Amino acid sequence: MSLSETLDAPADEIAPAASKPLLSVNQLTRVYGSRIGCADVSFDLWPGEVLAIVGESGSGKTTLLNCISSRMTPTCGTVHYRMRDGASADIYKMAEAERRYLMRTDWGFVHQNPIDGLRMTVSAGANVGERLMAVGNRHYGNIRNTAIEWLSRVEIGEDRVDDQPRTFSGGMRQRLQIARNLVTEPRLVFMDEPTGGLDVSVQARLLDLLRGLVSDLGLAVVVVTHDLAVARLLSDRMIVMKEGRVIEAGLTDRVLDDPRAPYTQLLVSSILQV
Amino acid sequence: MNALTQDTSSQNLASYNFAYLDEQTKRMIRRAILKGIAIPGYQVPFASREMPMPYGWGTGGVQVTAAIIGRDDVLKVIDQGADDTTNAVSIRAFFAKTAGVVTTTATPDATIIQTRHRIPETPLTEGQVLVYQVPIPEPLRFLEPRETETRKMHALEEYGLMHVKLYEDIARNGHIATTYAYPVKVEGRYVMDPSPTPKFDNPKMHRSETLQLFGAGREKRIYAIPPHTEVVSLDFEDHPFEIQHFDQPCAMCGAEQVYLDEVVLDDKGGRMFVCSDTHYCESRRADGHCGALLGDEPGLGAEANTRKEAM
Predict the structure, then answer these.
(1) pTM of the model
(2) What is the C-alpha to C-alpha distance for residues A116 and A197, in angstroms, rounded to an integer?
(3) Which value does ipTM take for this structure?
(4) CA–CA distance, B3 with A271 (Å, rounded to integer)
(5) Partner of B139 for a Cys bridge, out of A182, A214, B193, B214, CB 3.0 to 4.6 A?
């Protein structure tokens, strides 16, 4: 034991940062009284990787996402995040101030319903600029220019920068929410059903946009979805959940083309073929 | 004052305790005030009492004044700078009756000044106490409705949201259009709502010699700015904080660099601008200053009731 530790230690220092996981989830469990939200979930997420968590409604996807994004304290288990300085920290042992700072700088959270993630009563520019102002940016002109730049990256015209998001369509709101999260150039983004509630053509454009942004920025993403097409298009790896437990995990192509667990086979075969 | 006899007379069983509140309540409020002074800008919760006036009429300010007032104090009460409006007259009468203290309208003579919205134009000095009546003490309230969340934001010094409001102002109006309740940062730590004072008065709070106490009765909060405390109005680098400017001097006393009220004169668009601080205006006129609309009645004495004419 002590021998292996001494041998491992120098190897870790030599290894480049990319070879260490960005997020490391270990035996995470969340119970609601006697009911299980999610149980015994472990996985690693590497920088630049997109991980999809799929499963039917009530399978514990969102509970898991909330637990790993520090929005809900897990019953047991740990979540380690590798900070920008390379040190790995247990997010539930951090001071709250540090955790909240992390959430609004290095992380992003895209809600299924844009209303939950946006301030509906302030303009699109202020929505995008909020994180910049939260980290101490105090130059109106710069904030506004950055906001306009990000709006154009998510295909929202410059002329809409002073409009409130309630005047936006569902797809535009979702894109605005994405811009608002990405403006501080986070390394890790959590997404909860990002295409839920959008019609198919808007979904396709949003997915296309997301895929482009993810590869341009080298984002690591954890995306929760019940839509296998979203998982296929966006993700590198996927986890299949049922009744709070992981029943299958692997590369997206492998899981979708060669499902092993009976439930995954059922899930894959239930995609409507048009 | 006839009230002086009231508090010495024990035969009158129905009389109020000195300054209306019972001693335990005053001690509780004083503790909150001391805590507020120790942590400038921090909103201290206190067990606000029902007062014999409706919420919104200064119940918080009255409780703070009741807790700090002594028999030797001289009280001035202003409402929007005026000594003669309903609110000011009632509160002055209230303390004249329940505490038997001397009241005044002259700013330099007062030891305690209770105010709704204005800081007097006459510079305040060390030893005076300014008590503000505050309707909504939470500067983040209209941006974040959850009290649990705003307290956490204060605790963790997360004030980015305050700038979102200012950003929104500039985006909509081209300049920071917040003219009152303009948020300030106290001693580099807490963001504070200076109650609905016009932003014209914000610079007067900065390093003031006077102790400033803020009481919000309905919201049950007390906060304070001790003397010589840094009070900085929030702004952007390219849109710095500015106070209001008026193109014309006071129509009654000719004063410049003071906060003016607009008074409508007729239904044909006639209007005049007069000092909002009535005592300041009166004392200037008593000194012989004369504004454009004062007319041919110079030499009004200081004791003359010039306020009726101003209206």
Answers:
(1) 0.83
(2) 14
(3) 0.82
(4) 87
(5) B193
